[in-house]
């Protein structure tokens, strides 16, 4: 069957298995046919991280059971196909939230481990992997091991953020965080320029539980880097209220609909939506976490050609210069998309290929079109030059050289792969592109 | 659903529809007995129901094709339910490809055995228990395939057709005792049974079928299709004369 990354620019023809029971996972591995095997969760990685062209993918979405919960510690054991939507449905009424949540509730716990996802609370709480206690991992030799930082620290750190290349998760134990509620008080402030943004970010990262910035990546000159900074704290307030009506994008929009004028107009309106003096309002926590989830298949607005998402982090010290350079490249190319996201990250993750480091991260979409790959290549090079790196869950274009220079723990990661998967059974299109595993 | 919560015995509980139904029942405050062959899988589903809903959940070994397991499961479920009402959801079935069946007469027999004989035997054993209880609901998964024998699926369809006829009789028998029997006829459902078969008409998710089953059980409906448009589609298919139907590659 044909599958694609969420950006739809990367496609793959795969054989798919969709286990409904644990023992079906073993059966898929035992088939051992050519082309390797890769677990795929919600399919929300933008590029080719969850693709395995010519090989097999194991769709984990039906493995969605919660296996144990300890309300005193918050420890939850679940199967890898449990989504963030499931977690919030079950646990928000009990006052618990997932410790880190990506920008979509359709992502799975397995994917959260594989990409060591971070959320809008990264400065405060770290990334998902920071809260993982252990996991059960099916290895290439057909055995299943319970892996914790104590039992096998190298394999543990290779699997957190390891993009599914060490094996297949059967169960994950991680710590849910208490103190959550249905509503958050969101404070929105206009940031007239990049400098304002960076100053404000430096301030709120020490105080706010959640923070995220929206940037108008088409703004130029003195307005370069203007946007809206949102911070949020849990607020009392009963019940979830009626769920927001979700809409779907019914067909691929024509690519011509999105150009620098329409997007520029949208971004300007988004900026002016918040009064100059700022505002504060209560919002459902889920709407704050997942602003795009109410529009199903929103990736279709970029048309049939699809889009790329670029996300890089640069260390704090380099951020003012690096971000300015990147935003100038983007605005002068005039190719940016809707809102870009700018936020701070608090500390490095526990995984060898974890994305976070203490710094500033910029994320934005680019509709696919002529010259866009070259722009992304220059953006990645700029991030690298300033000691930064590109997020593998978003990446579709990094070169092997860039990847190797960005991820310093790569030799350790490869040593673990040589030990647990010497034949390269677990593989993705991204791993092939980045030279992580040879052709099987 | 009054006083003490009812219990639902879910037979064939590893199937996707049965799992979804068990969640639906537990969400409505019912207790659940999960019966099936794959014990580790059932334990995982039981754990899931406990974490999500904290109802009483139990696991029981049950193999429709092994009659010696039938009585024990029913006994266990009955005592688990007491003093409240026991209800029964049956999702037992296999659907090999027609090509595989045509290549192996033994497989044809197994398809009839599992989809029809085994279920009939189990329900025959359950019937007196429900008559004694004088209440309760029984929901059994049939199939649109049982409404007309088709080239592409006729052994499975024949077994399900037999099951539909059996359930009509059982319904009449148990109606006299105040027990409802609901036949659910799903079209293709997005489960392991149909995964990889390509594009299927009106494919529905197991959750949607479970929701239809649950509503039908509460309402004591006799026969329903899932999703409902299959009622009309099958009415048309049934109306086609055999002289023409035999030429169709359906």
For this structure, what is the CATH homologous superfamily of chain B?
NAD(P)-binding Rossmann-like Domain
Q: Please give the number of β-strands of chain B.
A: 7
Number of domains of chain A: 2
CATH class of chain B: Alpha Beta
How many alpha or pi helices of chain B? 9
Question: Can you name the CATH architecture of chain B?
Answer: 3-Layer(aba) Sandwich
Secondary structure: helix percent of chain B: 40-55%
Spatial ordering of strands, largest sheet of chain B: 3-2-1-4-5-6-7
Number of helices of chain A: 13
Taking the alpha carbons of the first and last residues of chain B, their distance comes to 42 Å
Query: Uncertain segments of chain B of ≥5 residues (pLDDT<50)?
Result: none
Mean pLDDT of chain A: 92
Oligomerization state:
heterodimer
Largest interface in this structure:
A-B, 18 and 17 residues
Report the portion of residues of chain B in β strands.
5-15%
Structural class of chain B: alpha/beta
């Amino acid at each position: 069957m044909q599958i694609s990354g969420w950006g739809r620019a990367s496609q793959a023809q795969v054989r798919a298995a969709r286990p409904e029971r644990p023992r079906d996972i073993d059966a898929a591995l035992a088939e051992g046919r050519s082309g390797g095997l890769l677990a795929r969760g919600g399919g929300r990685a933008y590029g080719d991280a969850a693709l395995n062209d010519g090989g097999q993918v194991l769709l984990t979405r039906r493995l969605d059971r919660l296996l144990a919960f300890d309300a005193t510690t918050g420890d939850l054991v679940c199967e890898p196909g449990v989504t963030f939507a499931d977690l919030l449905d079950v646990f928000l009424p009990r006052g618990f939230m997932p410790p880190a949540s990506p920008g979509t509730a359709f992502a799975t716990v397995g994917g959260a481990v594989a990409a060591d996802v971070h959320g809008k609370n990264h400065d405060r709480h770290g990334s998902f992997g920071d809260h993982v206690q252990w996991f059960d991992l099916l290895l290439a030799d057909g055995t299943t091991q319970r892996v914790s930082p104590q039992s096998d620290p190298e394999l543990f750190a290779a699997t957190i953020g390891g993009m599914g290349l060490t094996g297949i998760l059967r169960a994950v134990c991680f710590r849910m965080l208490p103190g959550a509620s249905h509503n958050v008080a969101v404070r929105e402030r206009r940031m007239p320029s990049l400098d304002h943004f960076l100053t404000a970010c430096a301030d709120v990262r020490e105080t706010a539980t959640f923070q995220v910035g929206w940037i108008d990546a088409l703004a130029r000159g003195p307005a370069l880097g203007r946007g809206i900074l949102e911070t949020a704290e849990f607020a009392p307030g009963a019940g979830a209220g009626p769920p927001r009506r979700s809409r779907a994008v019914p067909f691929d929009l024509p690519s011509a609909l999105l150009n620098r004028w329409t997007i520029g107009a949208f971004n300007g309106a988004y900026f002016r939506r918040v009064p100059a003096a700022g505002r504060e309002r209560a919002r459902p926590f889920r709407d704050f976490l997942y602003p795009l989830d109410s529009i199903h298949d929103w990736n279709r607005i970029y048309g049939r050609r699809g889009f790329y998402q670029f996300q890089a982090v640069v260390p704090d010290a380099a951020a003012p210069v690096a971000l300015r350079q990147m935003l100038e490249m983007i605005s002068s190319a005039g190719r940016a998309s809707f809102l870009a996201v700018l936020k701070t990250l608090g500390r490095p993750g526990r995984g060898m290929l974890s994305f976070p480091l203490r710094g500033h991260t910029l994320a934005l979409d680019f509709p696919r079109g002529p010259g866009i790959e070259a722009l992304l290549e220059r953006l990645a090079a700029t991030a690298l030059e300033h000691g930064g790196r590109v997020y593998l869950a978003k990446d579709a274009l990094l070169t092997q050289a860039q990847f190797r220079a960005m991820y310093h723990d790569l030799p350790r990661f490869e040593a673990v792969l040589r030990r647990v998967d010497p034949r390269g059974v677990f593989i993705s299109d991204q791993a092939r592109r980045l030279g992580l595993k040879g052709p099987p | 659903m009054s006083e003490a919560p009812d219990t639902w015995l879910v037979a064939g509980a590893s199937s996707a529809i049965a799992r979804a139904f068990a969640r639906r029942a537990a969400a409505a405050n019912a207790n659940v007995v999960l019966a099936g062959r794959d014990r580790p899988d059932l334990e995982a589903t039981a754990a899931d129901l406990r974490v999500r809903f904290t109802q009483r959940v139990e696991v029981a070994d049950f193999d429709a094709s092994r009659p010696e397991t039938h009585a024990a499961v029913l006994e266990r479920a009955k005592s688990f339910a007491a003093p409240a009402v026991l209800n029964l959801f049956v999702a037992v079935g296999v659907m090999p490809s027609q090509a595989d069946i045509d290549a192996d007469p033994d497989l044809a027999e197994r398809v009839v055995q599992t989809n029809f004989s085994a279920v009939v035997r189990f329900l025959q054993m359950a019937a007196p228990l429900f008559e004694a209880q004088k209440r309760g609901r029984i929901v059994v998964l049939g199939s649109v395939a049982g409404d007309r024998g088709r080239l592409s699926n006729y052994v499975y369809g024949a077994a399900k057709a037999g099951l539909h006829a059996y359930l009509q009789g059982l319904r009449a028998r148990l109606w006299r005792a105040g027990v409802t029997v609901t036949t659910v006829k799903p079209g293709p459902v997005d489960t392991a049974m149909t995964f990889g078969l390509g594009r299927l008409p009106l494919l529905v998710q197991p959750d949607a079928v479970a929701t239809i089953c649950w509503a039908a059980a509460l309402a004591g409906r006799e026969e329903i299709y899932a999703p409902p448009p299959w009622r009309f589609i099958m009415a048309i298919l049934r109306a086609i004369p055999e002289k023409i139907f035999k030429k169709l590659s359906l």
